[in-house]
Write a structure and sequence with these properties.
Elements lengths: L8 H26 L5 H13 L9 H4 L65 H5 L11 H13 L14 H16 L7 H12 L9 E5 L2 E5 L6 E3 L1 E4 L5 E4 L2 E2 L7 H16 L5 H4 L4 E3 L20 E3 L1
Parallel strand pairs: 3-7, 7-8
Antiparallel strand pairs: 1-2, 3-6, 4-5
Helix pairs in contact: 2-5
Length: 319
C-alpha cells in the first residue's frame, strides 16, 4: 500500500502564486475590456474568430487575446489559458491513477469504511403552473442573446448606473450652414474635398471643452465611493454605421485621440482617416479604446430627437 505524499510548502507557495497571477491577469483583461466602451461587442466577436482561427484577425490583437477573459453570460468560449477540467495540485493523481502535469504517475490507495446511506428525501412536488405560463401564447419562446446583441444589452444596462443629466437645446444653424457653403466653394476652387456638418460640430465640441473641461470628466468609484476620473486628453468618439460581413449594420465608435491638440485642418484629416479605416476594416485596438466623449448622429436614420446612453468611462455624448 502506498500513500499519497503531503503537498510540500514549496508546492503550496507555487500554487498560491499561480492563483494570484491568474487573478491579476483576469483583472487586467477585465480592465482592458472595460476601456472599449460601446465597442466591447466587437472585441468579443473578434475573440470568437481568434479562437476559431487566429489568422483571421489582425496580429495586433494576438497579444491582447492571449489573456483575454470574456465576461460570463455572453456566450464566449473559454480563453486560451482556461483549463478544460479541474486543476489538481502538482503530483496528485487523477481518478485514472495518472498524475497532473509536472508530476510522475502515482497510485493512490485509501481505506474506506462502509457507512449506511442516508434515507432518500422525498421528491418535492412539482410547482403548479403560474398565470404567466398559462397565459403564454402557443409558440412563444425566449431566445438567449449572444455576441454583439448580448454585449449591447449589457452595456446599456450598465449605463443606467452612471449619474447623468440630459439637456435639449435649439441652436440657430443659419451661420453654420452659410459658412459651410463658403468653405466648400473655396475648397472646390482649390485643393478639393468637402466639409460636412459633422466635421464642424465635432470640432466645435472639442473647442467648447476648453471652456467647460468638466464635460470631459467621467464618473468612477474608488474603494466603493463616488469619484471623478479626469483624463489627460480629449478623445472624441465618432459613431460610425458600417455594414457587417453578413450585410447587417454595425455601430463602431473609434475615437480621435488628443483632439484638443489639433487645428481644424488636422482634425479634418484625422476624422477622414478614422472613417476610411472603419469602412475598410483597418481600425486597430488603440482606435477603439480610451474614448472620453462621443458625437453621434441618429438623424441619418430619420430620428428628429433621441436620448443616447452615456457609456461608463465617458463624460458626455452629444447627438
Amino acid at each position: 500500500m502506498s500513500a499519497v505524499p503531503p503537498e510540500s510548502p514549496r508546492a503550496s507557495a507555487e500554487s498560491t502564486e499561480q492563483a494570484s497571477q491568474g487573478r491579476d491577469e483576469t483583472a487586467r483583461a477585465a480592465s482592458a475590456s472595460k476601456d472599449f466602451g460601446p465597442n466591447e461587442w466587437l472585441v468579443d466577436e473578434l475573440y470568437q474568430r481568434y479562437l476559431a482561427d487566429p489568422g483571421s484577425v489582425d496580429m495586433a490583437w494576438w497579444n491582447f487575446f492571449a489573456d483575454y477573459q470574456p465576461p460570463a453570460g455572453l456566450g464566449g468560449a473559454a480563453g486560451p489559458g482556461t483549463p478544460a477540467g479541474p486543476v489538481r495540485p502538482g503530483g496528485l493523481a487523477g481518478p485514472d491513477g495518472t498524475a497532473a502535469a509536472g508530476g510522475a504517475p502515482t497510485r493512490a490507495t485509501a481505506l474506506i469504511t462502509p457507512t449506511p446511506a442516508p434515507p432518500a428525501a422525498p421528491a418535492p412536488a412539482a410547482p403548479a403552473p403560474g398565470p404567466a405560463a398559462a397565459a403564454a401564447a402557443p409558440g412563444a419562446a425566449q431566445i438567449r442573446l449572444r455576441g454583439a446583441a448580448a454585449r449591447t444589452a449589457t452595456n446599456m444596462a450598465a449605463s443606467l448606473t452612471v449619474p447623468t443629466a440630459t439637456s435639449v437645446r435649439s441652436i440657430p444653424a443659419k451661420l453654420l450652414i452659410d459658412n459651410r457653403i463658403v468653405i466648400n466653394n473655396h475648397l472646390g476652387r482649390g485643393r478639393g474635398g468637402k466639409v460636412s456638418f459633422t466635421h464642424l460640430i465635432g470640432f466645435a465640441m472639442v473647442r467648447a471643452l476648453a471652456g467647460v473641461p468638466e464635460m470631459n470628466d467621467a464618473y468612477s468609484e474608488v474603494d466603493g465611493k463616488p469619484a471623478v476620473a479626469r483624463p489627460g486628453h480629449v478623445n472624441l468618439g465618432l459613431a460610425i454605421d458600417v455594414a457587417g460581413r453578413d450585410g447587417t449594420r454595425q455601430l463602431l465608435v473609434p475615437s480621435i485621440k488628443a483632439a484638443e491638440t489639433l487645428d481644424f485642418r488636422h482634425f479634418w484629416m484625422a476624422y477622414e482617416d478614422i472613417v476610411r479605416r472603419a469602412r475598410t476594416g483597418k481600425l486597430t485596438i488603440e482606435d477603439y479604446a480610451g474614448t472620453t466623449i462621443t458625437l453621434t448622429n441618429p438623424g441619418t436614420i430619420g430620428t428628429e430627437h433621441s436620448v443616447p446612453r452615456l457609456m461608463a468611462g465617458q463624460g458626455c455624448i452629444v447627438g
